[in-house]
Each structure stands twice: as C-alpha cells, then as structure tokens.
C-alpha cells in the first residue's frame, strides 16, 4: 500500500510573488496602507454595528472586538482589510503573535482612537510604529515590490 503524500499548497502571498515579475518583500506597512485597510474594515463592520445597536448597546463593541481580535488571531494574521492590502501582523521578531499581545494591541488601539488617534500620530514624530504596536511589541508588515539594489 502506498501512501499519497499531501502537497502543501503555496500561500496566496507566495503565489503572488511567484507570478509577479517584480521581486516582492515584506516591509513595515506604510501609514496609508493601514488607513485604507481600516476604512475597508469599517465598511464591513459598520452595517453589523448599525443592526446591533437597537438590539443591545453592548453588542456593537463586542462585535467589533470579535472581528478585529478574531481575524488577527486567524491564519491570515490580520483583518479582511489588511488581507486585501497584502498586510499581516507579527511580533517584533516577525513571528506569530499571541493572544495576550493581540489583546494589548486592541485595548491600546481603542484608547488611542478614543483620544482622537493620538497613538497613531507618533510616527509623525519620528518613531516608525504607532503606540498600540509599540505597547504590544507587534508590527504590521506589507508585501511590497523590492527596491533595486545599488551596485
């Protein structure tokens, strides 16, 4: 009896890198990509929140938390918006993030947004990462065309 070996299918990112003629690499995500992903996520979550508000006032924040925390813990390592923008969340050592880091990141994100996005203005002061990423020791990386190496 011969066993069939299961061939692992390459990830979407790997398929993209294999089909695109331009070399690709993972780098820290620029602010504009993060903003576009967040806006897209809000368009997805918004109708659910609007539906849940008349049902119970505690359900909308819970639904938003489940969306963000759930997708960030998933194999996608990010929300649908991040997936569309070819981004994912990893820890400082570019490894998968743990539940406690995701929870710290989410709470810091909520507090930053409640203070008019104060934690997200930090990159403009010279530091590369927003406060929620610094506090949770995480980073958002994006698949980007490689810059040609100077010889």
Describe this structure in words.
The chain has 151 residues and is α+β, with helices and mostly antiparallel strands. It has one domain (26-145). Helix content is 48%, strand content 12%. The protein is built from six helices and three strands. It has helices at residues 12-19, 31-52, 59-73, 80-84, 99-114, 131-136; strands spanning 24-28, 87-91, 138-145. A three-stranded antiparallel beta sheet has the order 1-3-2. It starts with 11 loop residues before the first helix and ends in a 6-residue tail after the last strand.
Characteristic key phrases:
151 residues, alpha+beta, 3-stranded antiparallel β-sheet, 48% helix
Beta-strand residue fraction:
5-15%
Supply the number of helical segments.
6
Count the domains.
1
Major sheet description: 3 strands, antiparallel
**Sequence of secondary-structure elements:** HEHHHEHHE
Task: Give average pLDDT, whole number.
Answer: 87
Taking pLDDT < 50 over at least 5 consecutive residues as the criterion, the unreliable ranges are none
What would you call the shape? globular
Bin the helical content: 40-55%
Number of extended strands = 3
CA-CA gap between termini? 55 Å
What structural class is derived from the secondary structure elements?
alpha+beta
Identify the strand order in the major beta sheet. Answer: 1-3-2
Radius of gyration from the alpha-carbon trace, in angstroms: 18 Å
